[in-house]
Amino acid sequence: MRVAVERIANSSSGIAVSMAIMNVATYGFVLLGSDLLGTETYGAVAASLNVLLVISVGALGLQATAARRISADPQHVAQIEHSILRVTYRAAAALGVIMLVLSPAIQRLLNLDHIGVALLIALSTVPLTIVGGFAGILQGERRWAALGLLYIASGVPRLVIGTAFIAWRPTELWALAGIAISFWAPVLVGWWALRNRRHPSDEAAGHTGMAMLKESISNGQALFAFFALSSVDIVVARNVLSNHESGLYAGGLILAKAMLFLPQFVVIVAFPTMATGSGRRKALVVSLSLVAALGTVGTLAAWLLSGIAIRFAGGVKYAEVEPRLWIFAILGTLLSMIQLLVYSVLARQGKRSVYVVWLALVTLVAVGLTTETVLGLVTTVVLVDVALLLVLMGVSAWFLRDGAPAPAEPATTTLQS
């Protein structure tokens, strides 16, 4: 029995299980939080979490850089690990300071009642960024058991600590305080997994700290575009809808985010293969098909079983949004497929392909600010995402066609479209 458990933990299936536990725990926190806080207060918490999601692109940029380089150049793992950790710690400190300076602007942007919430958002960027570097090393080395524990630590403590704080003090300030504390749990797991650090005998060409930083920034801006696209609608909702309606929209987004993060394990497992070049087209096609299949099942369930689905989107307080839940399920599926395509771009070190994501973001904000209802806003977001998905699929089909150039090697800084 023990051998079987260890075998699963050290396989890609173990990552799926670990991420399922993380997502269920995170989802449980959202459900309990939305019920305990109510629509208006939860709307502010949801907006704050979306800001943290956007900020986490720095961590994800570091993770993608470490995972890609280690997968493509496993002979220089020690050099890559040394450089990425050095960049990670410096980036975490820098982002923390920047976000502290921007705290007053965040408070105004999100229409928060307390500056302390914005300060907690800033402080949370430090552990978030550190975890990104740790996760990238483990992902690149395919150390699935350790990476799985890190992901579990990213979800379960948030459920336990975050919910306890909300139950104690049901305000947006204390909700963010519990979340901020829980973010240090995966840092401890990652530190423990990487405690026996290898010391590089030399600094391999192309794996310097500056090279890591440049690639991480490039990856980060691509992921920033995606996560801004996936999160900006709640900010728009806070500005064009009433507090009650923006809360309802946030409730619908609970389901959308569940549909976005449910197949997250697909991205984690497929990315190293897409980064090495061998079988990258097959990996993308299979992954997209799996995400689409999961999304179809989820959307049908949200449509046919909306009465049950609303219980997973905030409960009876959000009953007004129940007839529209299937649209939010479609939204989450579209975002999940777009995310996979963006990671495919990172795997081949593309650059100009990301411009279309920025264009979609600008379009969504411009058109979204003209809407006046929950249905109008979510419909706008879905239509923009459909157009973006089709464009990215076309671009990926072109670059992953037979005879197309292989992805750039780690030491190369040349970027494709």
What would you say this structure looks like, in words?
Helices cover 79% and strands 0% of the residues. With 417 residues, it is mainly α. α3 (57-72) packs across α12 and α6 (115-140) packs parallel to α8 (172-182). The longest helix has 44 residues, at 12-55. The relative contact order is 0.13.
Which key features would you list for this structure?
single chain, 417 residues, mainly alpha, 17 helices, disordered C terminus
Helix and strand topology:
Layout: H1 2-9, H2 12-55, H3 57-72, H4 77-101, H5 103-110, H6 115-140, H7 144-168, H8 172-182, H9 184-193, H10 209-240, H11 243-261, H12 264-276, H13 280-304, H14 306-309, H15 325-347, H16 355-368, H17 374-399
Order of helices and strands: HHHHHHHHHHHHHHHHH
C-alpha end-to-end distance: 49 Å
Biggest sheet statistics = none
Oligomer: single chain
Q: Hey, roughly how much beta strand do the residues contain?
A: under 5%
Mean residue pLDDT: 82
Structural class label: mainly alpha
The helical percent reads over 70%
Q: What is the tally of helical segments?
A: 17
Condensed summary:
With 417 residues, this protein is mainly alpha-helical. 79% of the residues lie in helices and 0% in strands.
